[in-house]
Amino acid sequence: MILFGVYFDYPWLLPLAVVLPVLVIVLLRYNYRRRFARLARLGTPDVVARLVPPNAMRPPGWHVTRVATAALGVGIAVAGPRWGAERNVVRTSGIDMVLALDASLSMLATDERPNRLERMKQEVRRLIDQSRGDRTGLIAFAGRSYILTPMTVDGGALSLFLDNLDPSVVGQAGSSLARAIRQGSDLLMLSNSGADKALVLMSDGEAFEDVNDVIAEAKHAGDQGISLVTVGFGSTQGATIPVKNPDGTTTPKRDEGGQTVVTHYTPDFLRAAAEAAHGTFIDASRTDKAALVKSALARLRTKAHATISGESRTPRYQLFLLPAVLLLLLDTLLAERRGRRRRSSAAAETSVSAAAAVALMLLPYVIGCAGVLPSSSPAENGARAYRSQNFQQAAQLYRRAIDGGDKRPEILYNYGTALLAGDSLQGAAEVLERLTDATDPELRYRALFNLGLAQLKQGLAAPKEAANEPLDAALAAYKKVLLMRATDLDAKWNYELALRKKQQGGGGGGGGAGGGQSNSSPEQQKPQPTGGLGQQQADQLLGSAAREERDVQAKKQKQTRSEPPPGGKDW
Q: Where are the alpha helices (DSSP H) in 337-406?
């Protein structure tokens, strides 16, 4: 049944390949007997033969054979047979677009609900949903600009960084539209995809810099062929900026003189930038800003993109369904023929029926001998050995497949995972390290997970003085995993375990780590933890990676705060 599960999408439908032909044989023969009995009541066989068409009295042998064979083909086809590997390529078309998002303190003003920043995020999510084929990059800016993601079509990565966007990300307070336009233009010009380029700047427009600098950068972007769209948020009446105090309370932000800061939506900068680049300005009062942005960019030239999303076996149902349809068409044509009247002895009729019965009996055997399923390869034998928990043999078989010329990344992943399951940790880490830059996101995620597990096990087993290096490598691997899938509880568990062991000085301990389980392709792998994780523990571990990332950002912010914001205004 395992073999059927590999070569059929719906192996539980395979019994139809037996049930349907048997049902056809029974029904057709029953129908023939009833028709023959009705005709026999009309008179003697010689009289009836002169009154009805010749095919009405013909035994159903070949008719049954054709229809039963067609039923066999349909029964196999509906089970979804597939063999032979093919790459799944997702083809889309779109433009290159950079979203420059204002993350200054003024975006926390509540003149838009719940605040300007969250309202901007809502529009960005809608814009990304409407731009599935576009290669998109994210930039956050305040006093300086900061690239969150490079150009990508991965909507999950964009959503992850968008969810974590807040004023602490950039590292320097203030507002500088000119720097954001410059960095967005540089990021777009690094792309050579051939598609048209667009820079979408979303801000409340309150900038403390010379408007001529903004106009100069916008004009330079327009001269490079970049379509600039500026989008406003906020209200001209303005609002205060709520700031959280260390004790958890919220108070309005105050300036250096102790006066409460009121931030205002300032469309002049945004309008001037759009006009200088011959772009589009969308006022804060407009609704459905995402649709307006898409409309403004609709005239741009798109470029086709091809993204490989892994490998799968090639569907082969048509090899069974097409002959079944042809047999049914042939049977219909033959049924319309009346045939020639001829006398045939009972012995001859018996011979024809016997021949048909013999053909039906041999048919499944002939198809089985024809080799519908291909012979097993070393990779497939390795998958079976892994499922039998014979990890050393699985690793040897995968190694043999690689030496034989099978250089697919999936086979390399399965080889590294088999080494990991067999406790060959150093070898597993070396193999999986080669897959951390794989183009397939799913394969890269699983390779990073198992690489982190291999390093974690080495760190737990190493002496205290030698444990820091593998534990650091495990932390780095799991941080990348969490950036790809922030809700992966198994990765959070292993990350927290490595972090605690490192804080305790490394060495000793164990348990509770998740591991990858391999079959013949990475789509069938799912890392599972061997230790239980309670709801309370899970809640405590959810922010582990985010806490360390915030610490890193805080250190960067301390280093960059030496440069004061323009005019001393930090919102």
A: 346-369, 378-387, 391-403
Q: Are 80 and 9 in contact (CB under 8 A)?
A: yes
Report residues of the chain scoring pLDDT below 70. Answer: 1-6, 43-58, 86-90, 171, 305-311, 336-376, 505-568
Beta bridge partners of 96: 135, 197
pLDDT at position 152, please? 85
Where in the sequence is the domain holding 228, given as residue range(s)? 91-307
Q: How many residues does the chain have?
A: 571
Return the amino acid letter for 21: P
Strand-strand pairing, 239-240 and 197-203: unpaired
Q: Are residues 64 and 101 in the same domain?
A: no
CA distance 130 to 121: 14
Quick check: bond before 114 cis, omega within 30? yes
Residue 559 in any domain: the answer is: no
CA distance 230 to 283: 8
Whether 440 and 528 map to the same domain: the answer is: yes
pLDDT digits (tens, 9 = 90+) for 15-34: 988 999 999 899 988 888 88
For residue 253, tell me if it sits in a domain: yes
Structure tokens at 268: 């002049």
How far apart are the C-alpha atoms of 456 and 491, rounded to whole Å? 11
**Shared domain check, 180 and 37:** no
Whole-number Å distance between alpha carbons of 148 and 165: 9
**What angle, rounded to 10 degrees, do the helices at 409-421 and 441-461 form?**
20
Residue 542 maps to a domain: no
**What are the residues facing 100 on neighbouring strands?**
139, 201
pLDDT at 202 (0 to 100): 97
